[in-house]
Amino acid sequence: MRFLITGGAGFIGAALANNLVSHGHSVRVLDDLSAGDAGRLDPAVNFTRGDVEDKPKVWRLLNKIDCVYHLAARVSVPESVLYPREYNKTNVSGTVALMEALRDAGIKRVVLASSGAVYGEQRVGAVYEGLLPHPASPYAASKLAAESYVRTIGELWNIETVSLRIFNCYGPGQSLPPTHPPVIPQFMRQILEDGSLVIYGSGAQTRDYIYVDDVVEALVTAATADGINREVINIGTGVSTTINQLISCLEGVTRKKAKVVVSPSISGGVSNLVANTNKAQELLDFKPKITLDKGLALLKERDPHFVS
Ligand code: NAD
């Protein structure tokens, strides 16, 4: 098949692109490199630097494409609290611009990388797709708006759409930006370098951490699965892990004792977030394979930041 991946030089996008070309597919990537790195891509991937709102470029890249993966986005919850307009521009306007281009090019299917963050604080244990989302940050609000635009424009123009609500994805290749780094690589680096791990509040907050190869498998399946048109589907493990448990796992994998510093909670985060995975099992026959212990060991072994 022929794919276009927006944001394909990013953490998840590059893993997806490399997986697809390794299975003989033809893959084009569009990425403005605001956070991505084209050096992550297999040489067989056809890379173009550009913005999802650059219509002529997007039109050209859509020529003869069977399925589009839309991953281009700004992705930090705390950063979005500071810069909501920028998050709206990239994650919402960027998605609308892409959907217009897909309409004009007559594309058959688009898979949106949405986020478990759209649920916000909920009163149930594992969150399921029928819940009313309650975004707690501009990032989460922008992903929910993107889902809505993808579904609506898809319905109007007969484009098949599916939104995968990915939970906390981690693995080799995730960026470690100087500000607002994602928790797992940040903690891994700190523990390996004998630095301090800052936790916000009690460390009892829970998340559903899913290894990148599992997310890639779900994305690959979503390109061709039947019966998923207009659906939103959680992509998580269903396993709830507290920050304190995550630190214990990291101590096990690195065989080092963490130095923990406690700081007051920050805004935009939610206390508990774990996926109900029934729908993913039912519609995509998807079951993640990598446990957190195994995934952290793979991260330490394979990520260039940590290989000694
Ligand atoms: P990432 O920052 O590594 O990847 C995003 C990519 O989009 C980057 O390479 C960036 O350069 C590119 N980009 C940003 N703005 C662009 C624009 N205007 N035009 C073209 N390219 C642009 O992040 P990631 O973790 O790989 O996330 C990929 C997608 O998955 C995002 O849509 C994110 O919201 C979603 N997601 C990620 C997670 C996670 O835990 N990593 C969880 C839920 C959802």
Written overview of the protein:
By secondary structure, the protein is α/β, with parallel strands linked by helices. The chain has a domain at 2-169 and 211-237 and 274-289: Rossmann fold, CATH 3.40.50. 39% of the residues lie in helices and 19% in strands. It has ten helices and 13 strands. A seven-stranded parallel sheet has the order 3-2-1-4-5-6-11, sandwiched between helices. A two-stranded parallel sheet has the order 7-10. Strands 8-13 form a two-stranded parallel sheet. Helix 1 links the parallel strand 1 (2-6) and strand 2 (26-31). Helix 4 (84-105) packs parallel to helix 5 (138-157) and helix 8 packs across helix 10 (292-302). It is globular. The N and C termini lie far apart (38 Å). 46% of the residues are buried. The model has no long low-confidence stretch (mean pLDDT 96). Nicotinamide-adenine-dinucleotide binds next to helix 1, strand 2, helix 4, strand 5 and strand 7. The site of nicotinamide-adenine-dinucleotide has 30 residues, from helix 1, strand 2, helix 4, strand 5 and strand 7.
